Amino acid sequence: MSVATQRPAAAETEAGLVVRLRGAGRAFGPTQVLREIDLDVAPGEFVALLGRSGCGKTTLLRLLAGLDDGATGDLQTGRAPAVVFQDPRLLPWRSAVANVALGLRDGEGGDGSPRQRAAAALAEVGLAGREEAWPRQLSGGQRQRVALARALVREPDLLLLDEPFSALDALTRVSAQALVRRLWELHRPAVVMVTHDVEEALLLADRLILIEDGRIAHDERFELPRPRRRDHPELVARRSDLLRRLGVDDAE
Amino acid sequence: MLLVARSAAARQPPPSDPADEMSATIVAATHPTAAPRRTRGPRATTVVRWLSPLAILLLWQVASWTGVLPERTLASPIQLAQTAQELIESGQLQEALGVSLRRALVGLLIGTVAGVTLGTIVGLSKIGDAIVDPPMQMIRTLPLFGLVPLFILWFGIGETPKVLLIALGVVIPLYLNIVAALRSIDPELVEVARSLRLTRWERARHLIVPGALPGALVGFRQSLGIAWLALIVAEQVNAGAGLGFMVNNARDVLRTDIIVVGLLCYAALGLLTDSIVRALEKRALRWRDEELAR
């Protein structure tokens, strides 16, 4: 198996894709976690990766984020993928605005100083006025919004979300999902979101990919105008279908 | 030779009502010992906390007056205050303090630079760890003060062995704490730095230094404690100037008052430097301690 080649931006524009994987794989020792993954993601597309735990979906996301050096196959990913992890992962010793501004440089993408851009991004996620707060002083939902601002301020062409709402309580999760949808509509990055929540995938994504045993088992589109209602008949029907594919009986 | 002329008044029983004057002077001298204790309770508790130290001082003074505590065993508190004043007026105390302080600071500086450098190499690099850590662990097991005879043979009896003894005492706790602090930096945050494509410099500035700082400061406070201890030992062995010299000379002429004044100076220096580091700590760790006001 060939060693992965992660090519820079210019190479991939020919196909106009943000992600282009051909025969991508990943093994940890003797365990093959991902195998023969072919995946194309177009600019602005919102993809949900679904699967049972341990199926390899998070491994795939890390591979797309460029956080995995051990992958094999042909990988081309976005110019500047940005990641939001399951937990906010803020630097506790930096204020909210400094966390967002991390690694931003003057005169690189967007107007204004890194700090101004970071403050604007915080305002966008509803945290205006909390710029100087330490992460410890923010609630779990607020911290995750800072993490979202930190990803979006980089104006990524590919936004990678690794179960970003799973650590939030049910009510906070609903508003965080709505926030992600609004921000996606506004900035239009391609999004790849890992989730184990079928309903969440159906609320947000327009393409649903099921991973099973390290392979893409199913790949379907889901067109429904946004904002979507949880009780929309189309959504309910799809949910039952997807749950069955995941091996769960909806009726139980 | 160090001799302080004692005024006749000092030997005689103090005048009519010395209690106020005495407590005022002695309280000033011992204040640093009590101050760092954080009393969170109401003011009444703070007042009560002063009672037992004052009672001990009073008892001590009474014992000296009545002859229960002979001066050659331990001088009285009032005697101590007068001796301190005389030493200051003659300039001897300042000079001795200056010499000792310089020794401690030079040793501390050398030890800190070495401890931070070695700790950083070992904490951040696997090869550095493999090369530097074994000898450091060997040095760590050596009893610091057991090295004094060797140091005298190697470096003579000048400033060098004293400063090096302090430096060596400082290196070890700082080194150990910095290595541990660097190794305990959250790998998830390291991954964030990677996903944000931080440069090496940005990573050091935003992640590694602030992440290792709390541990490094703990190590530095331990190092300070050892620095003063090493200073005292080094000065006892051989010194032609400094606090240790002053104390040793006082021993030769049975001046317990000068010995105790010297000890109080060591204590005050230790407390002073410790409170400086604590102030730094408070400033550097605001993110951890600031209130959860929203």
Task: Give a topology summary.
The complex is a heterodimer of chains A (about 250) and B (about 290).
Chain A: E1 5-7, H1 9-12, E2 19-28, E3 31-41, E4 46-50, H2 57-64, E5 72-76, E6 81-84, H3 96-101, H4 114-124, H5 140-152, E7 158-162, H6 170-187, E8 190-195, H7 198-204, E9 207-212, E10 215-221, H8 233-245
Chain B: H1 8-11, H2 19-34, H3 43-66, H4 77-90, H5 92-124, H6 126-141, H7 148-155, H8 159-183, H9 187-195, H10 200-237, H11 243-252, H12 256-284, H13 286-289
Structural commentary:
The complex is a heterodimer of chains A (252) and B (294). Chain A has 252 residues and is an alpha/beta fold. Helices cover 32% and strands 25% of the residues of chain A. Chain A has 8 helices and 10 strands. With 294 residues, chain B is mainly alpha-helical. Chain B contains 13 helices and no strands. Chain B has helices at 8-11, 19-34, 43-66, 77-90, 92-124, 126-141, 148-155, 159-183, 187-195, 200-237, 243-252, 256-284, 286-289. The longest helix of chain B is centred in the C-terminal third of the chain and has 38 residues, at 200-237. Classes of the chains: A alpha/beta (252), B mainly alpha (294). The A-B interface holds A 65-67, 80-83, 85, 87, 89, 91-94, 98, 102-103, 133-137, 150, 154 and B 188-189, 191-199, 202, 206-207, 210-211, 213, 286-288, 290, 292-294.
Chain pair sharing the greatest interface: A-B, 24 and 24 residues
Proportion of strand residues of chain B? under 5%
Count helical runs of chain A: 8
Q: Determine the mean pLDDT of chain B.
A: 83
The low-confidence parts of chain A are 7-13
End-to-end separation of chain B: 64 Å
**Main pleated sheet of chain B:** none
Low-pLDDT parts of chain B are 1-36
- Structural class, judged by helices and strands of chain A? alpha/beta
SSE class of chain B: mainly alpha
DSSP strand count of chain A: 10
Mean pLDDT of chain A: 88
What characteristic shape of chain A results from the CA principal axes? globular
Sheet bearing the most strands of chain A, described?
Answer: 6 strands, mixed
Oligomer: heterodimer
Q: Rg of chain A from C-alpha positions?
A: 18 Å
**Helix percentage range of chain A:** 25-40%
The run of helices and strands of chain A is EHEEEHEEHHHEHEHEEH
Q: What shape does the CA trace of chain B take?
A: globular
Helix content of chain B: over 70%
